[in-house]
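cache lookup: miss for this entity combination. No prior model stored, computing from scratch. Input as submitted by user K.M.:
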Amino acid sequence: MPDNDQIEKINGDFKGKDVISIDQFDRRSFEKIFTATDQIISQKDSPHIQTLLGGKLVTLLFFEPSTRTFSSFSAAVKRLGGQTLEYQNPMQTSSAVKGETLEDTIKVFENYSDAIVLRHPEIGAPEKAAQAAFFSPIINAGDGAGEHPTQAMLDLYTIYQKFGKIDAVKGLVCADALYGRGVHSLIKAFGLFQNVTLYLLTPEELKLSQELLSDYKKRGVNIVEIHNEADIPNDCHFWYWTRLQKERYNEEKNIKMFRLTQKLLDEKGNKDMIVLHILPRIDEVDIETDADPRVIYLTTQVKNGMYIRMALLGLVLGSL
Ligand code: CP
């Protein structure tokens, strides 16, 4: 578990700061990003929002594949009137092939742009990048099995948008809790709010490490580990699904993920809840559930990913 205590805290003021880990956040900082996202959504067609990043250039440096995070950051910059310098697959196409270090790559890109959004397979790479950068804010777009802070922001925002609160929510998180970075940021983020209960449904092989379980409990999240669909309570505000992170373990293990099916929704769900998914989905979801109005991960949740990143960039680059 990386020590994130050295990274500068947000304390409600994002301007010029790195965004590496949920450990930098307090409740006020989350509330600020929620309010900024409300503003982005309500004023998205105004000249003010459409020119917020006028004259700014943001580097997107993605050492791991991405559909949503890459594209939503790219769309976010452009919808705010800024421009992007986009680098996907730098291990094949940049001078990293010749052995250039991540640190030097960051030092180069910060001369060209106003912020760097970094996805990297190595846990702690964004922190390393932030230490290397002289002046450019670094935004973590996912580091190995470490964290995915902007994913947690959009997930919590989507819950807040539906229920008007995060305090006292009860959720089911069906996840690869061992290798899934999104779930780590998600649980840490819930720890900034009061009285949250999470039923963590995992295959036995992919449950949280004892170290992380104990850390998350200390943060105040009431985590109930379950390994059977029969133990899902029927009064959840949300269900949150993830895929197996097969790229991070030996596939020969043949671990089975729990499936989201209409039958399960009908038996264990309730009419007011929402169903989220970190995406991509592979084979852990029955496609027929797409027609269920509670399932919002390919609509509202994805769209909120762009809005939350617009808000974050506006705050970090100091124009919101
Ligand atoms: N949720 C998420 O991080 O998706 P991508 O890997 O497609 O960016």
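stored under new cache key. The first strand starts at residue 57 and ends at 62.
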